[in-house]
Amino acid sequence: MSHLRNKIALITGGSRGIGAGIARKLAAEGATVIITFKSNETAASNLIKELESKGGKGLALKVDALKIEDIQYAAGHIFKSYGRLDILINNAGYMDTSGTRFEDIPLQTIDETFNVNVRATFLFAQLFSPLLTDGGRIINIGSCLADRVPGPGLALYSMSKSAITGLTKGLARDLGRRGITVNQISPGPIDTEMNPANGPSADFQRSLTVKGQYGETEDIANAANFLCLESSSFITGANLPVDGGTNI
To answer: How far is CA 115 from CA 64, 66, 69, 93, in A?
Structure first.
């Protein structure tokens, strides 16, 4: 299968975890995959080499999602190199894992959470929408924690991911006239470096799912691939939970 042949896809925060899983899937389907990374150049470079070793095409761009000039640079570079974009996947995210009490969360942490999870997602959509082809795709990676907060310490992150739902619906209206669909995928516990299946909270997270197990990055990648299909073109403004039943 290569239903994405000749498509140009951008995945923010794509050097590892869920982003890397999506990159592998879309490249296997024929897309030219561009990933952004903030600091781990080795991981980004190794992923592009992996994609190319399997016959795929890829590019890694160093982008700090907190800096609008970096996002503008990426937009200019992609336009100059490819002349367009067909798929934008807003995957880059931030979650404070320090365990700080709600009452003691510093302003810097509040700002970084919102600037990465909300502001950057908005700016990527805003700056790249002129490059998107009519009939293109935007997929925002949300979280099951936007709908259900199963324990303390999650208020800030959950609030930031709830904003993605509103953004997804608003963008679907704003860009729908061009045939661009905008949807959201909300992962549950997924086995990644940031949230490993053997981590300190893993047993609790597993207990929230129907099967009592973690998902894999491929589960999110398959959902993203589905939303890129031509046959999914009547789906927009939707939230697709891929959470193992966490929010049932």
So the answer is: 11, 6, 14, 9
Kindly state whether residue 30 falls inside one of the protein's structural domains: yes
Asked if the model's pLDDT at residue 184 lies above 90, the reply is yes
Would residue 12 count as lying in a domain? yes
Range of the domain at 231: 8-242
**CA-CA distances (angstroms) from residue 145 to 32, 85, 91, 237?**
31, 30, 15, 19
Phi and psi, residue 14, nearest 5°: -95, 10
pLDDT of residue 2: 84
Find the mean pLDDT for residues 219-247: 97
Packed helices 107-114 and 155-175: angle between N→C axes, nearest 10 degrees: 30
Helix (H/G/I), strand (E/B), else coil: 66: coil
User: Is residue 214 among the annotated active site residues?
Assistant: no
CB atoms near residue 19 (< 10 Å): 28
Whether 49 contacts 26, CB under 8 Å: no
- Is residue 35 classed as helix, strand or coil in its secondary structure? strand
CB 58 within 8 Å of CB 23:
yes
Query: Is residue 231, in this structure, part of any structural domain at all?
Result: yes
Q: Out of 73, 82, 94, 157, which one is annotated catalytic?
A: 157
CATH code of residue 119: 3.40.50.720
pLDDT of the residue at 248: 84
Condensed to tens digits (0 to 9), the pLDDT of residues 50-66 reads 999 999 999 999 999 99
Q: 214 with 189: CB under 8 angstroms? A: yes
